[in-house]
Amino acid sequence: MSSAPPRAAVIGLGSMGYGMARSLLRAGFAVVGCDVSAAAMQRFEAEGGEVARTPAEAAADADVVVCVVVNAAQTEGVLYGAEGVAEAMPPGAVFVSSATMDPEIARRLAARLEAAGRHYLDAPVSGGAVRAAQGELTVMASGTPAAFAAANAALQAMAAKVYALGDAAGAGAAFKIINQLLAGVHIAAASEAMAFAAKQGLDLDKVYEVITASAGNSWMFENRVPHILAGDYTPHSSIEIFVKDLGIVQDMARAQRCPTPLAAAALQMYLAAAGAGMGGDDDASVARVYAQLSGAQLPQKK
Question: Does 176 participate in catalysis according to the annotation?
């Protein structure tokens, strides 16, 4: 007789969580999804997943609970809010926390859950929605050996690279914050460069071609500038994500007396975009702020 497939709950079926849930399905997991969006759950159910009304219901029989929400407050709500997963998870199950957050909060959440006989893996991810759908994310993880062991099969299903960064929660979160500092600055720099090029009347498609073959290229330039060229700011990662993440950078830097002036300048551009009503739009919308300030003409959506 064949054994039952491992069971996973994915809390948060947004652009990242949905791809992660589908990757788990492809790997043979029985996956229960839960999201505030009924449409997201209907879509997931139509593709072979199960759905649950609440996080607690989703986690009831899960070997692994993958939490892919926006921030620390939402993560804590998934764990300990009404219908939270902390008491619903079977003893010995692992909670995989993928939200970007202050490392100190990750340590606090881990200590509380581990005291109740469940495992906590601090495991923020990087790679975007496309890599999430392909099961090729980068995972920056830290936690106890038992947490890694309990989460291993799920991590292998969702990621191309899993970095084990320490035996206690907090290290994964800290690595992700470094990534977000760089990503936020790079997107702002790419946006500044494209608005500057537009102000000079350059062929922006040619600018993209030349820069992606030159030393000034970055992963974010290559990934985000096509949104600017298409004039399409449908959110893949929103402005508000970097308002949050670069805000965390500034809070941590201030507490540690570490200057981060480039991140601070980038944060101001994301705040300007959010203040101009673009908070829910793609983070490449920073280019629109530069265009508004300078009078540069960027492409419009066709």
Answer: yes
Strand partners, 67: 11, 97
- Structural domain 174-294, CATH architecture: Orthogonal Bundle (1.10)
Q: Sort residue 231 into left (φ over 0), alpha (ψ -120 to 50) or beta.
A: left
Region 264-282: mean pLDDT is 98
Asked if residue 40 has pLDDT above 80, the reply is: yes
Candidates 176, 244, 301, 302; catalytic one? 176
User: What is the maximum span of the chain, computed from C-alpha positions, in angstroms?
Assistant: 70
What Cα–Cα distance (Å) separates residue 32 from each residue in 22, 39, 204, 286? 11, 15, 44, 36
* Euclidean distance between CA atoms 23 and 158, whole angstroms: 6
Residue 1 confidence (pLDDT)? 46
The yes-or-no verdict on residue 179 having pLDDT over 80 is yes
H or E element, residue 134: helix 128-134
Domain boundaries, the chain: 7-169, 174-294
Is residue 173 within 8 A of residue 106, CB to CB? The reply is: yes
For residue 67, report the phi and psi dihedrals to the nearest 5 degrees: -105, 115
pLDDT of 2 higher than 60: no
In percent, how much of the chain has pLDDT > 70? Answer: 99
pLDDT in tens, 92-123: 999 999 999 999 999 999 999 999 999 999 99
How is domain 7-169 classified at the architecture level of CATH? 3-Layer(aba) Sandwich (3.40)
Q: E-assigned strands of the chain? A: 7-11, 30-34, 50-51, 64-67, 94-97, 119-122, 125-126, 137-141, 159-164
Residue 194 and residue 225 in contact, taking contact as beta carbons nearer than 8 Å? yes
